[in-house]
Amino acid sequence: MEGVNDIEFLRRISPILHQSDPSLPNLAELEALGKLIFIPFGGGHVRAWSDRLAPLNLPEFHLYDHELPPETEYRQEAADCVNQREHCSAVLTRKRSLENYLHPQAIEIAGGFPISFDDFDCVADLAAKCLYQQGVIDKPWELQSLRARSRMANRAKRWLNTVAVGHMTPELLRERDANGELIGWFRTMSSMIDEPQPTQTEETE
Hints:
The protein is mainly alpha-helical. It contains nine helices and two strands, in the order ααβαβαααααα. The protein has a two-stranded parallel sheet with strand order 1-2. The longest helix has 17 residues, at 4-20. The chain is globular. 26% of the residues are buried. The model is unreliable at 200-205 (pLDDT under 50).
């Protein structure tokens, strides 16, 4: 995963989906049982992580935000590299980032403000502005420094991936992800977790 916010998103939405469909994995529970490990690589140069864990000879699932071109192409190259390795899978989100899979209704319930966005809007920026305008405003959002807006957007991103995601439901996800993209990631992860792992003897042979 790119960062801790993405990890928080999956930790929180997977139990919600698992409760509705037990065939989908509860990633938070599996992590607690030691059956999987989330590794945040902090964004940046994704290609450097495409084979860094290969010596462990363990299944890997890489999830990269789509972002905007030309960054999209770099990320696709990294995913292609991962997908060439056995028992490994990598995908790019079809939307800009995981926050774009949140339903506006879930965000409104969590924050008390209406919001609208498309698949490639920066949801954290929009939510930060809404949250800011709910408080005591000393100056308009547009007059805040870029640094201040960036700081508030980072806080909003954390809020979206911890608080707002908790108000998602399977029905709301289906509205935001009609093609079942996120469900597909979970099914892939589940099959990889259930797959028998090579023993040390098999590796030596």
